[in-house]
Design a protein that fits this description.
Blueprint: H1 6-16, E1 36-41, H2 48-53, E2 57-62, E3 65-70, H3 72-80, E4 84-90, E5 104-105, E6 109-110, H4 112-125, E7 130-137, H5 139-142, E8 149-155, E9 173-178, H6 185-201, H7 206-214, E10 216-220, H8 225-232, H9 290-302, E11 321-326, E12 331-333, H10 346-360, E13 364-365, H11 379-387, E14 391-395, H12 411-431
Parallel strand pairs: 9-10, 9-11, 11-14, 12-13
Antiparallel strand pairs: 1-3, 1-4, 2-3, 5-6, 7-8, 8-10, 12-14
Helix pairs in contact: 6-12, 9-11, 10-12
Length: about 450
């Protein structure tokens, strides 16, 4: 899928282009056309998977409806192919007046540095509740080009042996993983709010206190920090950067280079997911990216394998729950996402997904979810497929309006996303003790 480079490239050119009016005075600059979201109705013989292979930026959208992010030129080309499109929303939302606080952009979303400062501050202020880990490096850091550590926090009422990088601890583990796709802004903010909820509630909220006494609550608030740097480089019109920033994949411009980290795991990795400049490019090989190495390394240490081979179900004594946050669509996706063939534990996975969905109203799907494309090499499939841990993608965000899309208004965090998902997160963390059991 092709990244929309309008925010930096086209807008910069438009700002520089000054039209001289007949009177000799300078007319206002002509703004470049911005991308928007469109629904799709495909003619016979055209598929969503085929459009993705052709380079179009298609997302899960809302419900079972695929949505394309397209410029006016791309809309015209799609219509020339007999595809019916209906505009359902703008990519960019109106911003509140005022300047963003340090470490934030686009109305309040946190930059990579803002997340890192928050992680350090929380760990420093709550040494009895938080351990902060550097679990690996971003691509730029491995190349000596700046970059970031990939950070993970473990939050629990710490006792001897807690929050070790080991599967042998006494407390069941819940893991929240966010912003693997850099442009999916709401996901990192939900992780930020989750961290704050936990550390501010211990000793004050009985249910959360009990949870932290009995669980390890792991958080990776930003799995793609280099990508977030690109997104935030245009604070008022964020860049639509999805992938990491690996620019060695050959022949791609700066705006189209990179690897889709959610196609890069070594579980069902598929070389045919995209060409190097496409949004779903899975990399030259499985686990080619340091960010993938970091996440798989962490999860592989935290969880024992209770599943065995791909065709076997996980055993009933499996512990742990994993949530990877994406946007958008208001859906919960359960394994497997690489095939419509049912996972061995499908019934139990869907049952737990429905219990989480009872809090946020999201329906549960498996396979392609009716959208028409799969996600081989994804993080959640990797963890369930290799360890048996119930693993889910939460697609956060409305189908239309200011709270829709990859770049929703920041006000949606407090008005919609956080209140809808907080209780689902708490339930998932509680369920980590007996995820395949009968937790009410």
């Amino acid at each position: 899928m092709r990244k929309i480079a309008v925010p930096l490239a086209c807008l910069a050119l438009a700002a520089a282009a000054v039209v001289v009016a007949p009177s000799g005075t300078a007319a206002p600059p002509v703004a470049a056309p911005e991308p928007a979201y469109y629904s799709l109705k495909l003619p016979a013989g055209t598929t969503v998977a085929g459009l993705i292979r052709d380079g179009y930026d298609i997302s899960h959208g809302h419900g079972s409806r695929p949505v394309v992010v397209a410029t006016p030129d791309e809309v015209a080309r799609l219509r020339d192919r007999g595809i019916e499109l209906g505009k359902i929303g703008d990519v960019y939302q109106s911003l509140p007046r005022g300047v963003d606080a340090a470490g934030t952009f686009y109305g309040g979303y946190h930059t990579s540095t803002g997340h890192e400062e928050h992680n350090a501050a929380v760990a420093s202020a709550h040494p009895d509740l938080v351990k902060l880990y550097d679990i690996g490096d971003s691509w730029k850091k491995t190349k000596g080009q700046g970059g970031h550590d990939i950070q993970a926090l473990c939050i629990s009422k710490l006792a001897a042996g807690d929050c070790a990088l080991s599967s042998t601890g006494k407390k069941p583990k819940f893991v929240m993983h966010a912003q693997i796709h850099a442009r999916e802004l709401s996901t990192g903010e939900l992780a930020y709010k989750w961290i704050d909820l936990l550390v501010s509630s211990y000793g004050k909220d009985a249910a959360i206190t009990s949870l932290m006494d009995t669980r390890e609550l792991w958080v990776v608030p930003m799995a793609n920090p280099d990508g977030v740097d690109v997104v935030a480089s245009s604070p008022n019109r964020p860049v639509m950067q999805r992938k990491n920033v690996n620019n060695t994949t050959g022949g791609c411009s700066a705006s189209t280079a990179g690897i889709d980290l959610n196609r890069n795991s070594n579980f069902q990795w598929d070389a045919d997911q995209g060409a190097p400049c496409d949004e779903t490019y899975p990399g030259p090989k499985a686990v080619s990216e340091p960010e993938t190495v970091a996440i798989q390394g962490l999860l592989g240490k935290l969880f024992r394998d209770t599943k065995g081979d791909v065709g076997s179900p996980a055993t009933p004594d499996t512990t742990g729950v994993f949530l990877t946050l994406h946007s958008y669509g208001n859906d919960i996706l359960a394994p497997y996402g690489y095939t419509n063939t049912a996972a061995p534990n499908r019934a139990a996975l869907v049952a737990l997904g429905k219990k989480m969905g009872a809090f946020n109203g999201y329906p549960v799907t498996t396979g392609d979810g009716g959208v028409g494309y799969f996600a081989p090499g994804a993080t959640d499939d990797w963890l369930y497929g290799t360890r048996g841990v119930p693993s889910y993608t939460f697609e956060v965000g409305a189908g239309s309006g200011a709270c829709s899309g990859f770049l929703p208004a920041y006000s949606c965090m407090d008005s919609t996303f956080w209140p809808k998902n907080k209780s689902a997160f708490l339930y998932a963390a509680k369920a980590a003790a007996t995820p395949y059991g009968t937790l009410p």
